[in-house]
Amino acid sequence: MSKEPTTELIGHGRAMIYLWLSRFFLERPTLNALKERLDLTLLKSIRTVLGQNEEKGFSLLLKLANMLDDEKIRCLKEEYDNLFLIPVRGQHVPPYESAFSEKQSDFGDLWGIATDQVKQIYEAAGFEVELSGPIFAPDHIGLELAFMSALCLKETNAIEEKNQVSFLQSRALQRLFLHDHLAKWLPALAQAVEPRSPTRFFASVSSIAQKFVNEDQRYIDQDGK
Amino acid sequence: MVSRRDFVKGVSAVGALAVFAGGYGSTIPSLFKVRGARVPSNPTEVDAEAKIVHSLCLACNARCGIRIRVNNGRAIKIDGNPYHPNNTRWNPLPYDTPVKDSLLRNGVLCLKGQEGIHWTYNPYRVKAPLKRAGPRGSGKWETISWDQLITEVVEGGKIFQDIGEDRQVDGLRQVRNFDSVDPQSPELGPKANQVVLLRGRGQPGRVDFLTRWLNSSYGSINFIPHDGVCANAVQTGHKLITYDAATGAYADQLRVDIKNARFILSFGDIYQGGQPAIVPAGSILPGRLESKNLKLVVVDPRAGKIVAHADKWVPVKPRTDGALLMGMIRWIIENQRYDARYLENPNRDAAAQDGETTWTDATYLVVTDKDHSHYRKYLRGEDIGLEDDKDKQIVIDRTVEQPVPFDKTSASLPFWTGEVENAKTGAKIKVSTALQLLKEKAFARSLDEWSNICGVSAETISWLAQEFTSYGKRAGVLMYRAPATQYNGTYMVLAAVMLQMLIGNINWKGGYLGSASIGSTTGRYDLTKFPSSVKTKGVVISREKTKYEDTSEYKKKLEKGQSPYPATLPWFPLSYGGLWSEALASIDHQYPYSCKILFTYFANPIYVLPAGHKFIETLKDPGKVPLHISFDTTISETSMLADYVVPDTTFLEGSYGAMNPYPPNAARWMGLRVPAIDPLTAKTPDGRHIDTDTFIIDVSKRMGLPGFGDKGIDGKYPLNRTEDYYVRLITNLAFNAKVPDGSEEDGKFVQQNYPEFFTSYAKQILEADEWKKFVYVVARGGVFESPETGFTGDTHKYGTKRLFQFWLEKLATTKHSITGRNFEGTASWYSAMDAAGKEIDEIDKDYPYILVSYKMAIHTQSRTMYEKWALEIVPENFVEISKADAEKLGVETGDRVRVQSASDSLEGKARVTNLLRPGVVAISFHYGHWAQGATQMNIEGAEEALMPIRDDPRLHLQAPPDYIQGTTIKPDATRGKGIWVNRVMRIDDLTQAPVVDPIAGCSPTSGVRVAITKI
Questions:
Q1: Is the minimum CB–CB distance between A70 and chain B shorter than 8 Å?
Q2: Which of A131, A25, A22, A137 is nearest to B283 (CA)?
Q3: DSSP string, B372-403
Q4: Taking all residues of chain B, what is their mean pLDDT, rounded to a whole number?
Q5: How does B1-21 read in b/e, with b if 16+ C-beta sit within 10 Å?
Q6: Alpha-carbon B292 to chain mean position
Q7: How close is the nearest chain A Cα to the Cα of B264, in Å?
Q8: What is the pLDDT of residues B171-220, one digit of tens each?
Q9: Cβ–Cβ of A13/B10 closer than 8 Å?
Q10: Do B23 and A36 lie within an 8 Å CB cutoff?
């Protein structure tokens, strides 16, 4: 019978997956970065987390990992730009929570109430977010995923330091953040990306992110009971 | 769903992977840093060094709110004000949000606004008074004292004797004379009118102050804004359509409701050079288009940035937008897609019964009988023998189908033509309704013929008309200067507004909206009144707003039995006004009278006007311009031709004002401009900062002019320094808006963050109750109502509630002062013509291409070569040529080409593009400067005169490190790059000035015919 993994190791794994996901949204694709991110061992390990749930998306990533070249990267860059940077009608998906949480039809205003709330949660966790380049608001999907990663790492540090209060605070914030924010709007983002992803790459990544966040939320909820 | 066991197992396996041991761990700290005390949520409490000021941008004229961050006395960052609707997609913070809470949110702001710091700390900025030390334009200057400046400008004398000019120059004191400037032509007014002020960028506040001085205190009529090179045709067209002869009231522009319209027909690129500009339009439209609750069509020969968001781009032939609109009008009338119920309302009461706030003259009868004395005028009661209603317009009642006064029926026929009878004399009079006359103009050509003129297929014209009429009142036109400032621009504007009158969208949510505002020059204090104020008399030197037929020249010609036409130069009686090119042409021709003193305020006509370089010799000639004083922040292409440069403040230092954005603004939004830092300009001997206001005050006090000094305001309050006026203006705004009293926190915020010279003086001169309201508006950067409060149901509460006219009686009865022919009285289309009435396309037929210019979203007009970041993005401009034309010409991107017009030529680097209609060439504005840091100058006392800041890398300043060497000022090569497009604009053979629209008088910087050759 195998030994039950430690909460610390689980926290570390969760942190890494959140961070792995966040970088797809935060960084414009480059050959070196994608070679690193689409490492076969890594991909296969992450695939086991979601079981059969996301077979299609992982198959595409695995296939892509074997055929990465400059031309593929050019296409992925173009898709990234069209999806997340250039506000061209029909192609663009604003990767900010406010655009989804305050929408009247397809997309709502940026810098809305959700933006302020998210910023306040970052601050409550003791973090100051660094905005740079085209990532101009704290409720960017990449930042929210990275924030979850930061909270997971904070949790592992608390375990290491045997700081029960810090551990519980981190868990409470994770629960709150997933419930009120990340898990709430990520499905809508994935749904919006789906028809606008001609290479299927960002459709797959968004879908994987959505499924992972969904499973992670179940884990956090169950773990707290 | 994954089992918990599998999930835990999976993530643990990932956690154990060696691949994460490397670079991944460092990413999180780089994204999320542990917060320290350095991050201020309330800068007044947490960070004593940082200050936050809410104010109003002036990088362009969009009037966006700004939040300026000031550290150690220097402005280092500019963001949008979250209270201002312009910066928040019309979703501002509630106005009563405590200021400390507002600091959690920023509004958006464009690059131009953010580059305000580069304007303010521009190394080539002038901060001390300069006097030329060589001939005009020589680039030789000396720094002079404040007292010398004031003395010489007021008293005149042989003030240039030391550089070899022995002439006697009249100062302001000598020219202020109320004898007739020309006793033979008394209508021209007094000699004081020989002081002419060309006003460039002007906004309420400063403009109120300047007009109060020049008009009411000094007594010259010649305060001439720049509208003629801006949106004058838009304003002229709206004014003609909405003008109320009884009250003189009118609406000068409306615009489609960008937040609620379902269909927008945009002429030109509103992001790049129009209103509402990039910040409000560029933030509202993309989201709405993505939501699919708005359809946007862009009509423009060149695909500007807005086309990226559009459903359709219609590459119309340049200056034929009016023909496209006439085609649409034809289709709408032919297919009865107009709002008949709206058009049948002949008066206010009938409109009100239909829930409308405006009504039209569609059904008013117009005399079409050429022999009738009221030919081209409305038929009035007296014409048909109705003595009791003799001044009233007549309509055909819908029920009885008989002529009745317009106010005696609730529904009348919009399409009717026939004869009516004078009940007294029995005489028959041929008449048509106003809308019938528009119909005849639209039906004068078939759809295919309109299509041939504008180069847009008949199918597309039909589709546009169908779409435009498919959204009820939630459709409208977005336009500013690009389609209107054309040789035939006024008629384009008339057609665009009448198109909207056909669907009755005026004042409706999603339709055509005007402005809402709150006054600030009267109220608690009357800033307009003072004892001995002057009422100006005479004729504006640019020949605007006066009929040629009222001049002595006209009458004398008649007396001599000569034809009165042509006039010596054209007159523009119906123009909205602000005709710089005509003012300079008048100065050049010394007609109708000569100029003695020229002021240029925030104005660079030499660069901005089409073919402005033709006026360089005029401004150099002391015989035509004996004295020229420029108010400027740098030495521009125009101020380099001045005798004196008075250094002015930038929008971060002053240039006070209170104003609403351009329409559409749903509710009352009044931004407030106040200083964020101490001005960097030199000080007067008594310690005040030098700027335009200070100059006006000191000149006026030296001359003893009314309206200035210890009882300058309303005969009760002092006007001895700039803040005497503007602190009271802000107080007026606060009281007129009925804002609540500011809290102690508001007072503390203002006093701790805003410059002390401003706040302490305000506290000193205001009563305690005034101070409380003052700090409330200053702390929030103005007064901002919630957008939704601007609508009562679906009607714009602040809309203009008046008659909109299809038949423009004043226009129809006005004659072209050169040809003597009447203008058309309703929307129509004609080809571009010069002053003598010759068709431009005919006289310039050897030049096969049409050149259009455009503005960029990252630049403003002529003055943004200080924009370091914008120049990094686009260092120079190009001659843009369509791919099809480039192939014919054998030109590739990067080749040098010559652009030749009938008037001049230029050379530039080609860029081949698909974003242009074949047959059209495009060059952006803004580049190709020969002043403002682009050329070497010599200044005695350069270190004192300029803005050398070398110790603050946060300011990212742009100049060679050793740019001041003794008296020599070295240029910065990046500021002179590119092409000055105006060089090739068309000079009129008759006036030797730019060709202009004969009604509005506006001077187009597009539409000239050119030839292209590869060099």
A1: no
A2: A137
A3: STTTTSB-BGGGGT-GGGTTSBEEEBTTT-SE
A4: 94
A5: ebeeeebbbbbbbbbebebbe
A6: 31
A7: 15
A8: 999 999 999 999 999 999 999 999 999 999 999 999 999 999 999 999 99
A9: yes
A10: yes
Residues of chain B with Cβ-Cβ distance to A111 below 8 Å are 88, 105-108
- The Cα-based distances of A71 to A31, A78, A193 in angstroms read 10, 11, 22
Q: Which two tokens stand for residue B772?
A: 């409380």
Token pair for B124: 């080539």
Average pLDDT over residues B764-773: 98
Look up residue B859 and give its amino acid: H
Q: Where are the alpha helices (DSSP H) in chain A?
A: 7-26, 31-37, 40-50, 55-66, 70-80, 97-101, 113-124, 141-160, 164-177, 183-193, 201-223
Backbone angles phi, psi at B818, to 5 degrees: -100, -50
Per-residue pLDDT tens over the stretch B417-468: 999 999 999 999 999 999 999 999 999 999 999 999 999 999 999 999 999 9
Q: What whole-number distance in Å separates Cα of residue A51 and Cα of residue B758?
A: 67
**What residues of chain B lie within 8 A of the CB of A98, using their CB?**
none
Does the CA dihedral A128-A133-A139-A143 come out positive or negative? Answer: negative
Contact B293 A105 (CB under 8 A): yes
The span from the CA of B888 to the CA of B890, in Å, is 6
Q: Cβ–Cβ of B15/A16 closer than 8 Å? A: yes
Please check whether residue B302 is in contact with residue B925, taking contact to mean a CB–CB distance below 8 angstroms.
no
Q: Which candidate, B749, B813, B803, B806, places its Cα nearest to that of B775?
A: B749
- pLDDT of residue A103 exceeding 70: no
Count Cβ atoms below 10 Å from residue B714 Cβ, excluding itself: 17
Helices B4-15, A40-50: axis angle to 10 degrees equals 160
DSSP state letters, B147-214 = HHHHHHHHHEESTTGGGT----EE-HHHH---SBS-TT-GGG-BGGGGEEEEE-S--TTHHHHHHIII
Say how many C-beta atoms besides its own lie within 10 A of residue B43's C-beta.
20
| Alpha-carbon distances, residue A101 vs A97, A121, A194, A210, B413 (angstroms) | 6, 16, 18, 16, 51
Per the CB < 8 Å rule, is A89 touching B290?
yes
* 3-class state of residue B540 by DSSP: coil
Q: Does A133 touch chain B (CB under 8 A)?
A: no
A202 closest CA partner among A7, A24, A17: A24
**Type of residue at B98:** P
For A44, the closest chain B residue by CA position comes to B14
pLDDT above 80 for A225: no
State which residue of chain B sits closest to A45, comparing Cα positions: B14
Which amino acid belongs to residue B312? K
Q: Per the CB < 8 Å rule, is A16 touching B7?
A: no
Q: Which pLDDT band, with edges at 50, 70 and 90, does B26 fall under? A: low
10 Å CB burial of residue A11 (0-12, 13-18, 19+) is: buried
Which of A46, A86, A122 is facing B14, going by the closest CB pair?
A46
pLDDT tens across B809-838, in order?
999 999 999 999 999 999 999 999 999 999
How far CA B175 is from CA of B191, B192, B225, B653, in Å, comes to: 6, 6, 21, 32
Residue A200 C-beta-side C-alpha neighbours within 13 Å = 9
Closest-CA residue of A relative to B38 is A128
Query: For the segment B838-883, what is each residue's pLDDT rounded down to a tens digit?
Result: 999 999 999 999 999 999 999 998 999 999 999 988 999 999 999 9
Q: For the segment B51-60, what is each residue's pLDDT rounded down to a tens digit?
A: 999 999 999 9
Q: Which of B515, B516, B647, B520 is nearest to B209 (CA)?
A: B520
Distance CA B113, CA B62 (A): 10
Instruction: Name the token pair of B701.
Output: 């006090």
For the record, the structure tokens of B371 come out as 């022999």
With bands split at pLDDT 50, 70 and 90, how would you rate the model's confidence at B48? low
**Count of CB pairs separated by less than 8 Å, A with B:** 160
pLDDT, position B569 = 97
